[in-house]
Write a structure and sequence with these properties.
- The structure is a single chain.
- The protein has about 325 residues and is α+β, with helices and mostly antiparallel strands.
- It contains twelve helices and six strands.
- The protein has two domains: about 170 residues, no CATH class; about 70 residues, no CATH class.
- Helix content is about 50%, strand content about 10%.
- Strands 4-3-2-1-5-6 form a six-stranded antiparallel beta sheet.
- Keywords: Membrane, Transmembrane, Transmembrane helix.
C-alpha cells in the first residue's frame, strides 16, 4: 500500500477532519472566545471586587469557562452549546462536585466520583455540557478557597461566570445572521427546503460535504457520519411507506418530511360522514411546522397528507408505529 493510503488511514484513525470552515469564521470564533472570557472576568470582578466570602480577590472564574467559550463561540449551533446545556450542565455539576467534597472529602477517588456523577446527572437532566465535568472537578480539587465557599460556589463564581459569558454569546453572535444564538433563532431564517416531490437526485456524501462547507460554521459531525445517518433513516422510512388506512380521533400522524417541513397533527374529531364532500377531519398541530394551529380538511386530504401514525415518547421524540402496533 502507498504512503498516501497509510496517511489517509492515519487521519481517519486519529479523527483529523478536513475543516471546511472559512478563515473569516475562524477569526470570528477566536474573537468571540476572547470577548467571552473578558466578559467573565470583568463581570465577576464588578459583582465581587473583593472576592467571595472573604476569599482572595483573585478567585474570579473557573477554568471550565474556557471550554464553554470554545463551544459558545466556535460551535454556537451545536447541541452541547445551547442555553440549557450550558447553564444546567455547569450548575448541576457544581452541585455534584460540592456535595462529593463535603460528603466524602480527602479521598483519592472523590474527584472521579464527582465527574462520573456529574456526567450521569447531565445525561438525565438533558443538559450534557462537557465543561461541566471540569466544574465538578474544580469543586473537589480547587483547594481551601473553593472548599470555603461551599454551595455558594454555585452562585459565585459559577452563576456569575455563566451570566457574563451567556450575555456575551447572545450579543456577539447576534451580529452574524448565520450563527445567531441560541440555535432556535437561526432556524427561523433558514430557507425553505426543497419539497420531497421536487427532488430529482439522490443525496450523496459529496453533497453533504458541499453543504457543510456552504454552511460556513463548524459542525460537530463528519460528512461520513451524516451520510450514514441519512442512509439509516432511509432504511427506517422504507419499512412503512403507505398512508394510514384509518384516521382515528385522538391519534397522532406525521407527514414524514424533513427539516422545518416536518409536522405532527393530532386528530380532534374524525366522525365519518357518508357524503364524501362533507367527510371532514378536525386536527391540531402538536409539533413541527404549523406551531399548534388547528385546522379542518377532508378525510381524503388528511390521509394524503399523513405518511404514517406516530406516538409521543417520554424523551420528547416521536415513534413511528408499524402496522402491527397500529
Amino acid at each position: 500500500m502507498s504512503v498516501k493510503h497509510w496517511l489517509h488511514e492515519a487521519r481517519l484513525f486519529l479523527g483529523i477532519e478536513r475543516n471546511t470552515t472559512r478563515h473569516g469564521e475562524k477569526l470570528i470564533s477566536a474573537l468571540g472566545a476572547f470577548l467571552g472570557i473578558l466578559a467573565v472576568y470583568w463581570g465577576t470582578r464588578w459583582c465581587f471586587p473583593d472576592g467571595f466570602m472573604h476569599t482572595a480577590g483573585t478567585l474570579i472564574m473557573v477554568t471550565s469557562m474556557g471550554a464553554s467559550a470554545v463551544l459558545l463561540f466556535a460551535v454556537p449551533q451545536g447541541a452541547l452549546s445551547q442555553p440549557w446545556a450550558v447553564i444546567g450542565g455547569h450548575l448541576l455539576s457544581a452541585f455534584v462536585g460540592v456535595s462529593c467534597q463535603q460528603l466524602v472529602p480527602d479521598q483519592t477517588w472523590t474527584p472521579a466520583l464527582a465527574v462520573g456523577l456529574a456526567v450521569g446527572v447531565m445525561h438525565y437532566a438533558r443538559c450534557m455540557h462537557p465543561p461541566g465535568g471540569a466544574t465538578a472537578l474544580a469543586a473537589v480539587i480547587g483547594g481551601a478557597e473553593i472548599y470555603k465557599l461551599g454551595y455558594f460556589y454555585m452562585v459565585a463564581p459559577i452563576l456569575i461566570n455563566l451570566a457574563s459569558i451567556m450575555a456575551m454569546a447572545l450579543v456577539f453572535n447576534a451580529f452574524f445572521p448565520w450563527r445567531r444564538y441560541p440555535a432556535h433563532l437561526t432556524r427561523r431564517t433558514i430557507a425553505k427546503p426543497t419539497a420531497a416531490a421536487e427532488r430529482q437526485f439522490e443525496l450523496t456524501q459529496e453533497d453533504f460535504s458541499a453543504a457543510m462547507e456552504q454552511l460556513n460554521s463548524y459542525v460537530d459531525i463528519t460528512a461520513e457520519n451524516l451520510t450514514q445517518l441519512l442512509e439509516l433513516a432511509k432504511q427506517h422510512a422504507e419499512k412503512n411507506i403507505t398512508h394510514p388506512e384509518q384516521i382515528t380521533s385522538g391519534h397522532f400522524y406525521s407527514n414524514g418530511k424533513l427539516g422545518n417541513l416536518w409536522s405532527v397533527r393530532q386528530v380532534v374529531d374524525a366522525a365519518e360522514n357518508a357524503i364524501a364532500s362533507k367527510d371532514q377531519v378536525i386536527f391540531k398541530v402538536v409539533a413541527g411546522a404549523g406551531g399548534y394551529a388547528t385546522g379542518i380538511c377532508l378525510r381524503s386530504e388528511f390521509r394524503q397528507w399523513a405518511r404514517y401514525e406516530v406516538e409521543p415518547q417520554p424523551n420528547g421524540h416521536w415513534k413511528k408505529l408499524t402496522d402491527e402496533e397500529e
